[in-house]
Write a structure and sequence with these properties.
This protein has an 8-stranded mixed sheet with strand order 1-2-4-3-5-6-7-8, with helices on both faces. By secondary structure, it is of the alpha/beta class. The protein has helices spanning 20-35, 37-48, 60-64, 106-114, 137-148, 162-169, 177-180, 194-205, 209-223, 232-235, 257-266, 287-297; strands at 68-74, 77-84, 90-95, 117-122, 156-160, 182-188, 241-249, 271-275. It has 12 helices and 8 strands. Strand 3 (90-95), helix 4 and strand 4 form a beta-alpha-beta unit.
């Protein structure tokens, strides 16, 4: 990823005494970089773009019990999605974050369906039941785009973490009447800067500067644009959105709260609602947050 001098600085690693696995990775990349920057880059990029498929939690099957599963074909394989309340009058699309899946939206999906919405959530590429083992931010967005293109008019989108970066940063385009404006957008715990995400990854593994610069060049070569151009602090204010709402917790250990403040400062008209004590993931299922999201979407 591109890390220009003007990019927001990433905080120090939250591992003052890193786990053994991290120490081994640091050693691995030091050795690889000594031998070949290209080898070290290839291994770093593979790690950066390979989400883990975490073990299923006990509550996940129940989250999908009332949903209809369907698949959308893409050039990179099938993207799996789930639909609740198919006769709902307005469609809301839910986009999960890194290493999550559609079932993580179970609490919100249930409440939105009860409020009369048609609700659709997907497993992003290389996540959940969808095809693939590796995914970049643009590929993530292409998976969301493929599902969105099958839904007809979308009234609202709720996106968490990397899902928000993909949906609003790349961004995904929705087929809408009235000039293509998406009436409602809700973002939960999203990164403000893609380069800050890359900085945190590089700092955690203590990647040599030459490896980081090679990652930066690769993004430009593959996508024809700088990584920072995907950042919400730049794209948010340009999105064709009627109303937008952002939740971010003061205690988020994955995406610093300062990034949410930067998004809010750069995006006139954004409704910013800070929370406390929810962290990065609990914010998705907190009753007070869910209640506000449902009311905002009405």
């Amino acid at each position: 990823m591109t890390i220009p001098a003007s990019a927001p600085s990433a905080p120090a690693s939250r591992y003052p005494s890193p786990p053994a696995a991290v120490r081994l990775l640091r050693l691995k990349f030091r050795v690889l970089a000594t031998v070949s920057t290209e080898w070290a880059f290839a291994e770093a990029w593979k790690l950066f773009t390979s989400p883990r498929r975490l073990p299923e939690k006990k509550w996940e099957p129940a989250a999908l019990a009332d949903a209809h599963r369907f698949e959308v074909a893409t050039p990179r394989g099938q993207v799996v999605a789930y639909e609740w309340n198919p006769t709902g009058s307005r469609t809301v699309l839910l986009v999960h974050g890194w290493e999550h899946r559609a079932s993580f939206w179970g609490y919100l999906a249930r409440e939105l369906a009860a409020a009369g919405f048609r609700v659709v959530a997907l497993d992003a590429p290389a996540h959940g039941a969808s095809a693939g083992t590796r995914v970049t931010l643009p590929a993530y967005a292409r998976g969301v785009q493929a599902v969105a293109d099958t839904l007809g008019e979308v009234y609202g989108v709720v996106a968490h973490s990397l899902g928000g970066a993909a949906t609003a940063g790349v961004p995904v385009r929705f087929n809408q009447p009235q000039g293509g404006v998406l009436p409602r957008l809700v973002l939960l715990a999203v990164p403000g800067s893609t380069t800050a995400v890359a900085q945190r990854f590089a700092q955690l593994l203590q990647l040599p500067r030459a490896v980081v610069e090679r990652m930066s060049r690769y993004v430009r070569e593959q996508h024809g644009r700088e990584a920072e151009s995907f950042s919400l602090i730049h794209t948010g204010r340009t999105l064709p959105v009627g109303r937008a709402l952002l939740f971010h917790d003061h205690d988020d250990a994955s995406i610093p709260f300062a990034e949410a403040k930067e998004i809010a400062a750069s995006w006139p008209g954004l409704d910013f609602r800070p929370t406390t004590g929810l962290g990065h993931n609990k914010i998705m299922r907190d009753p007070a947050v869910i209640r506000q999201v449902v009311e905002f979407l009405k």
